[in-house]
Design brief:
By secondary structure, this protein is of the alpha+beta class. The chain is 51% helix and 22% strand.
Length: 130
């Protein structure tokens, strides 16, 4: 999957582009199979004036689930990119953990129901004379 990197009122060089791809790979490598698409939007609200106006939005599209969207803002673009990608990865891990917990809960209930059914059948067979 190739992440889409979009810019608005901001130009990035190949080094920054590679840096963003590298950070995404590091943060999302384990969960990449669950992500349908990745979009990173970079913008500079005030242009070259400076200040805390660099904005980064990371959007992870998860098939069959809600998308994860994280916004970060600051003056240093690399630091803002790092924070946004880190927060997106944490959010995705939390969602996956929650999904796993639900799946395990359903599976354990099914197992319990199956075991109870086997126990009833065994008791019925013991109680019925041959």
């Amino acid at each position: 999957m190739r992440p889409l990197i979009l810019t608005h009122k901001l130009s990035i060089d190949d080094t920054m582009h590679s840096y963003i791809l590298h950070r995404l790979r590091l943060a999302l490598d384990r969960t990449l199979s669950r992500i349908g698409a990745i979009t990173v939007r970079l913008s500079d609200e005030n242009g070259p004036k400076g200040g805390d106006d660099k904005s980064v939005q990371v959007k992870l599209i998860l098939p069959g689930h809600e998308s994860v969207i994280v916004h970060e803002r600051g003056s240093d673009l690399r630091a803002v990119v790092d924070r946004a990608i880190h927060r997106a990865a944490q959010t995705l891990q939390r969602l996956n953990a929650k999904r796993q917990k639900i799946t395990r809960s359903v599976a354990s209930r099914k197992l319990l129901a199956t075991e109870m059914q086997y126990a009833e059948e065994a008791n019925h067979m013991l109680a019925t004379p041959a």
